[in-house]
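Re: beginner question about structure tokens

> Can someone show what the tokenized structure looks like for a real chain? I only ever see the sequence side.

Sure, here's an example I had lying around. Input first:
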Amino acid sequence: MTELEVLEAVRGLVPAIRERAGEAEEARRIPDSTMKELAETGFFRLLQPKRYGGFEADPVTFYTAVMEIAAACGSTGWVASVVGVHPWQLGLFPVQAQDDVWGADPHARISSSYAPTGTITPVEGGFRVSGRWSFSSGCDHAGWVFLGGLIPGPDGVPVGMRTFLLPRSDYRIVDVWNVIGLSGTGSNDIVVEDAFVPEHRTLSFADTSACHCPGNEVNTAPLYRLPFAAVFSTTISAPVVGIAQGTLDAYLKVTRDRVRVSYGGQKVAEDPHAQVRIATAASEIDAAWALMERNIGEMLRTVESGRELPVDLRLRTRRDQVLATQRAIKAVDLLFENAGGRALAHGNVVQRGWRDAHAGRVHAVNDPERALTMYGQGALGLEVTDVMM
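And the corresponding structure tokens:
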């Protein structure tokens, strides 16, 4: 298969994913059948290195698939995006870590929780890890997990941050996910009780920012020389933009025949105010995607040419990523406000889209002030030291 054939196969699953959206929400996790079918299309191998059976695909192809999945079911799109990007990150780890995971199972899946809420203790050959991490989306469908942790110096002050890779046998999942948006993502807690993580199963955040990681020794494709801040942040915004598109599609389908009783039986489709909202929402969604696609594509072409990624491109990518989420939220709000009382019903796609989009907005990487401050600093010629750029 080619990456474009994978995309077409994913599109073939969209109707079934849409039909299961309510099931996912009620179960508070993605149905096993959906994860199985997505795996069979090759979706989870799009960003996986070729040496382990992956496609090393253009990330724009991956994000396109994510948005189409999210348009059908926000929770499924979110999990697909987050779990689907992890093969890319594993490709940055030392070769032994990649062999540990994919040597046994090239189809292994990884969930994550990057906030450094646990305790990391350096020991000979690696680290002892303990603690509790939250919001590990899709963890029930994964056999490994990425966990963020701060490395303490001799005086206890952190000297760096790393991602730690642990197998399912080293942690347990605590079912706490009972929320109003992205309800089907199963973003439960991960608890680790004094597990040993060897040095080779760790990855420095500083290395991912410098785009110089141990995995680059074997995974030499330009894909693996992109910054984590760009790839992961777009992974979070893409499903939110997809949710907005799905909300617009659902709104249009209903609005074509909807009648307002309080306005003398006027068809909403004939209301110029509704028409303006539709045009504005559609433009916001298109702008969000167009800028993300442009920036990720330009990053990939820059790396392919052997040039170093300029700081202004990194900052622009983060600026447009966080504003993509803002634009998606604006689009969803415009539509929800004009959708009428029936949109409040349980199971209505428009209200689910509103809840899911706003739930995605609160992810830390979608903090607009932080990302936009970085861009402003760079535009003014000030030094930007944030690793998430």
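Each token stands for a local structural state, so reading them left to right follows the chain. Residues 3-107 form a domain with the Butyryl-Coa Dehydrogenase, subunit A; domain 1 fold (CATH 1.10.540.10).
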